[in-house]
Specification:
This protein has five helices and ten strands. The strands form two sheets. It has an eight-stranded mixed sheet with strand order 1-9-8-4-5-6-2-3. It has a two-stranded antiparallel ribbon with strand order 7-10.
Length: about 200
């Protein structure tokens, strides 16, 4: 009986700490329309020539996000011309971290010369629909017969601290596989970073 109670408690805790919903690899992702740092509204459907997108949930203050900013910029410079541009989204509650507000996003994009859209998910609805929990957290989606199919979820690479010491470039490998019409392997890794700051 005691073991049964322990198992039930463990199951309850496991269920309780799951992210709300979210996509799995192979799911159809819903498009969105969010405000860019330029003031314009952006949706994935606006880009008719893209084959897919590297969607990155990130923010201004998180040390992990900061470490990856140049790498995210490089991903866009490398893959946008090949059909897989980066679209970055900040879903953090600015009431908890003021620097994550919209004005802070504009400032950061200018400072780092972002080559990609940096969108404000003010209601946090898009982060919840995707199931994003970390910054950065990557979702690669591919256009297939009018749908956006999730092909990869997880980390950018295997070394947040030192870009020169990276051994596995998960996002690059995934996009390269898609461009070559090959299966993505791995198609899921654990996202490493700060937790998304949810509204209270």
């Amino acid at each position: 009986m005691k073991n049964l109670i322990l198992l039930s408690t463990a199951f309850f805790l496991l269920v309780s700490f799951r992210p709300d919903g979210g996509y799995k690899v192979g799911d159809v992702a819903t498009d969105f329309k969010l405000k860019n740092v330029t003031g314009s509204m952006i949706s994935l459907g606006d880009n008719k020539v893209a084959q897919g997108f590297i969607v990155v949930f990130t923010c201004n203050h998180c040390p992990f996000s900061v470490k990856y900013e140049d790498r995210i910029n490089d991903l866009n410079k490398k893959y946008a011309q090949k059909g897989y541009p980066v679209v970055a989204i900040n879903s953090n509650d600015a009431a908890q971290y003021e620097e994550d507000n919209y004005d802070g996003m504009i400032k950061r994009a200018k400072e780092k010369d972002f080559s990609f859209p940096y969108l404000h998910d003010e209601t946090q609805a898009i982060a919840r629909s995707y199931g994003a929990t970390r910054t950065p957290h990557v979702y690669i989606v591919q256009k297939e017969k009018g749908d956006l199919i999730v092909k990869y979820i997880g980390a950018i690479d295997d070394n947040a601290d030192d870009a020169s010491a990276v051994k596995e470039k998960y996002v690059e490998n995934a996009v390269d596989a898609l461009l070559a019409s090959k299966p993505v392997n791995p198609d899921f890794t654990k996202a490493i970073g700060c937790t998304i700051k949810w509204k209270k």
